[in-house]
Design a protein that fits this description.
The protein is α/β, with parallel strands linked by helices and 368 residues long. The protein has 2 domains: 2-42 and 138-209 and 303-367, FAD/NAD(P)-binding domain, CATH 3.50.50; 77-132 and 211-300, D-Amino Acid Oxidase, subunit A, domain 2 (D-Amino Acid Oxidase, Chain A, domain 2). 28% of the residues lie in helices and 28% in strands. The strands form 4 sheets. Strands 6, 7, 8, 15, 16, 17, 18, 19 and 20 form a 9-stranded mixed beta sheet that branches. A 6-stranded mixed beta sheet has the order 10-3-2-14-22-21, with helices on both faces. A hairpin with a 6-residue loop joins β21 and β22. The longest helix is centred in the C-terminal third of the chain and has 16 residues, at 327-342. The protein starts with a strand and ends in a 7-residue tail after the last helix.
Length: 368
């Protein structure tokens, strides 16, 4: 049996970021069931860090993460647009940007169309520009964590699907499909959409993880148009987001949230059509051909907060799940909290100063 201090199941951004925090302090092994880290949700994220996502604690985690995220990101403005009926929601979003000291500007429809020339007049009654949003290099982030883990003599093992989890003395023991055994007194469940399945294997009460499928389409920009400076554009409330992918391609999503079983998600024709229709209704873009599409699973629990902390009645079983669509943009702060939970250390000082707590993210809250 291979023995570590901490065993992490799941090699997406959640598992890798936590393992990278732990690696300088304890021996850590990451088991990833697929052929490479970040295969599922982490490898399919558009990964744009902004404050128009999530509830208040998620935004606090984002704020605490922005400085570290900048090491693997480029600054790219985010344009939040609102119909007349969504002005109150835009006002609330402006207050969020004010609260977190963002570099932002509230603008009118003409200024919005100057930034995003494809917008139809009726699509935007008012808007907000966040000048400090970040386009994240997800591959670089994942590989930096892998390098940190291995640089501290930890291990990241792909193709290591876990099929059995049990207790032997004071250790959790995970058995891989090929029979290889790994043991550690602390097991971090960072399995994303499969987190409840991992819990069941370990005899731990599930937390009600709900995977939700989101679809992204890619299509050609208008001929001869360099769209690379177009902002990430997102409707306040229901609608779509749209952003450039280089000079000549655009990405879009209707921000769908279709409940799904844990699976290797694929884009469905109806979801692709809805995304294209949302974009065409609000812009002058004509999507004649979708050049590429994909789908990923974003995992939530009932209150849409991440779940971090030890499971009741299961010493050393640490949850790190339910990041929703904010996994990358909250990873620096959330991984520090999860690593503290795994190593039985105090809450990080910056998290406490921001009003966050272990109790806020504890799995115990879901049983209350």
């Amino acid at each position: 049996m291979y023995v570590s201090d901490v065993l992490v199941i799941g090699g997406g951004i959640a598992g890798l970021s936590v393992a990278a925090r732990i690696a300088p302090h304890a021996g850590v092994t990451v088991l990833e069931g697929e052929s490479a880290p970040g295969y599922h949700a982490s490898g399919r994220s558009v990964a744009f860090a902004h404050y128009g996502l999530g509830n208040e604690p998620v935004r606090s985690l984002t704020a605490l993460s922005m400085a570290e995220l900048a090491a693997h990101a480029s600054v790219h403005p985010a344009l939040h647009i609102a119909h007349e009926g969504d002005i109150a929601a835009l006002d609330a979003l402006e207050e969020v940007h004010r609260q977190y000291g963002c570099d932002y500007t509230r603008i009118g429809p003409e200024e919005a169309r100057a930034l995003m020339p494809c917008l139809k007049p009726e699509a935007c009654a008012a808007a907000l520009v966040d000048h400090g949003s970040l386009k994240l290099d997800t591959h670089a982030m994942l590989q930096a964590h892998v390098a940190t883990i291995r640089g501290n003599r930890g291990a990241v093992i792909p193709g290591a699907r876990v099929v059995v989890i049990g207790r032997e003395g004071d250790r959790w023991v995970a058995v891989r499909a090929d029979g290889t055994r790994h043991g550690a007194p602390v097991l971090v469940n960072a399995a994303g959409a499969w987190a409840d399945e991992v819990a069941r294997m370990a005899g731990v009460t599930p937390i009600g993880i709900e995977p939700r499928r989101r679809t992204v389409i890619s299509f050609a920009a208008p001929e001869g148009e360099d769209v690379s400076r177009w902002p990430f554009t997102k409707t306040v409330g229901e609608g779509f987001y749209l952003l450039p992918e280089g000079r000549g391609q655009l990405l879009a999503s209707s921000m769908d949230q279709t409940p799904s079983e844990p699976c290797d998600a694929a884009a469905e024709e109806l979801d692709k059509a809805i995304a294209a229709d949302q974009v065409e209704q609000a812009t002058t873009l004509a999507i004649r051909r979708i050049s590429h599409s994909w789908a990923g699973l974003r995992s939530f629990v009932a209150d849409e907060l991440p779940v971090i902390g030890e499971a009741a009645g299961a010493p050393g079983f640490i949850w790190c799940a339910g990041q929703g669509g904010a996994g990358f943009q909250t990873a620096p702060a959330l991984s520090a909290i999860a690593a503290a939970a795994a190593l039985d250390q105090p809450l990080p000082e910056d998290a406490a100063a921001a009003g966050l707590s272990f109790a806020m993210f504890s799995p115990a809250r879901l049983a209350a």
